[in-house]
Amino acid sequence: MPEPDFERLDAWWRAANYLSVGQIYLRDNPLLKRPLEGGDVKARLLGHWGTTPGLNFVYAHLNRVIREQRQAMLFVTGPGHGGPANVANAWLEGTYSEVYSHIGRDETGLKDLFKQFSYPGGIPSHAAPESPGSIHEGGELGYALVHAYGAVFDNPDLLAVAVVGDGEAETGPLAASWHSNNFLNPALDGAVLPILHLNGYKIANPTVLARMPEEQLRQLMSGYGYEPHFVTVSDPRATAQAHRDFAAALDECLTTIRDIQQRARSDGDLPEGTPRWPMIVLRSPKGWTGPDVVDGKQVEGTWRSHQVPLSEIHTSPGHLRQLEEWMRSYGPEELFTETGELRPDLASLAPEGDLRMSATPYANGGWLLRDLKLPDYFGHAVKVDSPGSEKVSPMITVGGYLRDIIAANPTNFRVFGPDETASNRLSAVYDVTDKAWQARTEEVDEHLARSGRVLEVLSEHLCQGWLEGYLLTGRHGVFNCYEAFVHIVDSMFNQFAKWLKVHQDLSWRRPIASFNYLLSSHVWQQDHNGFSHQDPGFIDHVVNKKADVIRVYLPPDTNTMLAVTEHCMQTRDTVNVIITGKQPNPTWLGPEEARLHVRRGIGVWDFAGREDAGADPDVVLGCAGDVPTLETVAAAGLLKAGIPSLRIRVVNVVDLMRLQDDAEHPHGLKARAFDNLFTTDRPVIFAYHGYPWLIHRLTYRRTNHANLHVRGYKEEGTTTTPFDMAMLNQIDRYSLAMDVIDRVPSLGSTQASLRQSLQDQRQRAWQHTRDAGEDAGFITGWTLDESSPDDSQN
């Protein structure tokens, strides 16, 4: 291996540092051709210097090995506000000007590059979708390492370098992310090189790992299964030694990675257990190469360098002079030509084409995306002789569908879940694959293999992060989870949804496969779990995000669930939330009808209601969700039997966003279409899967909103039967039917006898659960064709 040209490598680092400082401070005079004036500096100084020089240092060294080895590499920046580094290196490599043609590679381009940073109409201060080469939103910490692992699954030629900040290392998701090495197959996957960057401080406090004795830190990393290599910058001015030390550690790590992969891919010589992958612990001063002392206080190497070390530029001439001295210390005249271009001898240090980390297609995964080969929908659908005649588990059926997707797409589709794939009835996938597992196995273990397509770990954070990294680098997948516990990733969902929103607005970013949540074991059917497992509020959280990004589906039966899954697997640039039960439930629609219903997203179920041609209904029964749909259809049956003259319309909603106005959401219904379904003046009783106020929020602009009465989950629950859960929250068939009697003006006192009968039946159903510990037969055995209003007599 040739001796690195450390002099030119150091010059690249200085150029990146210069550009980073310029982004934080300057709006004019980018090459310092004249003394710096107050007008050259931005009015508002926003950005983060402290972590940036370390990121630039690592980036420069990675470029060296990319050129030497032609290694495809993805740079994942964990230190959240290291955005100046990403932008600086993208400009130096030429990618920034290719993507943003108005930011040239000359003095004017430099001025525009500086001015746009943290500026109105410009770009954020952190690594964001606007940054070429980034797949990682730097706004929230904790996700660098898990994203890197997600990126290299099924990408055998890719090396993802994840720089983990020591503040980030204190977060829960990052602490769990170290375990990802136990799921990485060296024969079929790429590799991750973690670089734990210890610069000592967060915003205002020291960091735990930086203050940990080196031997203890070595033991910690070794205990996680890594081989740590320590590089310590003890003298901030001895940069030549720092370059030599880091280059040696990096070369040794890459040699180890190649050896592990070579043994796995060629020799088959891998002992049982997880390989001991290398990592680097880089100790460097926070704010390295920046102002040493400001106003008599130490800045370099302390928390004071975290954001803007010289913050009083406009009120302190001394700060302005110190800023100019700081920027001139990098020798801009040695780095850039008179017209502002990077000097050719330095420009040649950038890798070529797609090997540039700022231009790699792995960071713009739509370029690599291939459509899934999907199984035949009708081959999995349930034949329905009459509505509700077949009771089938939607999740078992979808498990077979996912099994066939895996078989047809063996290198670009995976299932992720927190130890719940079997619990959620998706076990059919194990007919064609196993769970990925590199650690020790025992005879009692089932479905564990190095090459498994299912990734299970008891961390929703890892499942979310792995899938994000997998999707952002051009593949497809699904995250299955218990409904109540998907809340654990609320914040991660926030960050990803925000990424997608901006990603959609950037013409140079290609569409990626959608993020598919498959949520089951839901609030209404808990089996042996209780109140702690009952929370449908993830939907409420999701719909807060930009309408172009989010979709929510509540399929009422197996065939609609299958049709929704088929649809979602073909979508791009959205987050799809699909919620269904795993227990056998009535199948209302045949295969073709279910597919049409999903494409409409909402529709009238004539078989469940009773209407007269040319006349408005007396009442509309709306429903969304499998259990609410069952109870609504049953309530309609009770009313049809008890009040033969009552005109009842049943409207089922499978795409929840159809309830919104079309001006609010791309799936929203136009006002007239909504009024045609729900009328403009008749009572609407709506049974909903989640918290009832969301339906009001989605429909508040509708004409008939004042007549809309929603029943849903209201925080009543325990370990109990499914029907008792419905009764506790008053979405049961009897409560819905009584609500109709109470709210339809033409009924009221004329139906007192029927209402009392319904109330008595409800009491008998409740008492049966207390006496027998299970739901009554007249509940579990109910069918659509029952005609008696007193089911207890059947």
From TrEMBL:
Pfam families: XFP (PF03894), XFP_C (PF09363), XFP_N (PF09364). GO terms for molecular function: aldehyde-lyase activity; magnesium ion binding. Residues 582-783 form the Xylulose 5-phosphate/Fructose 6-phosphate phosphoketolase C-terminal domain. Keywords: Lyase, Thiamine pyrophosphate. The keyword Coiled coil does not apply. GO terms for biological process: carbohydrate metabolic process. Its EC number is 4.1.2.-. Its cofactor is thiamine diphosphate. Transmembrane segments: none annotated. Residues 5-367 form the Xylulose 5-phosphate/Fructose 6-phosphate phosphoketolase N-terminal domain. The keyword Transcription regulation does not apply. PANTHER family: PHOSPHOKETOLASE-RELATED. Belongs to the XFP family. This is Probable phosphoketolase.
